[in-house]
Design a protein that fits this description.
This protein is mainly α. Helix content is 49%, strand content 12%. A hairpin with a 2-residue loop joins strand 2 and strand 3. Helix 4 packs across helix 5.
């Protein structure tokens, strides 16, 4: 289990159940409960290789494959520290 998830009190069972409920052929809705939202955002961040740089358009394209609200998801990834942004270039952090 990821140290990142444990920081937010998310254990393996909770994570698997949340992903099973929310991530099926895309994400119909982003969870409103904070722990569930963090689990889903973390799962989506796995689409990006740690240390690799991505232009904003590529980040948007990958997120849209799961959910249309790419702005919210992208912002959450940055706010949670899963990605860093500098001059329109995004980089997945090492966790």
């Amino acid at each position: 289990m990821s140290d990142f998830l444990q920081t937010y009190g998310i254990d393996e069972l909770f994570y698997k159940k949340t992903i099973s409920n929310f991530v099926k052929d895309g994400i119909a809705q982003i969870p409103t409960q904070q722990k569930k939202r963090i689990a889903v955002i973390y799962e989506l961040s796995k689409d990006f290789e740690p240390g690799c740089e991505y232009p904003e358009s590529e980040v948007n394209r990958r997120i849209i494959a799961h959910n249309d609200d790419y702005c919210l998801i992208r912002r959450e990834m940055v706010c949670l520290g899963l990605m860093k942004r500098q001059a329109g270039v995004y980089k997945r952090t090492e966790l």
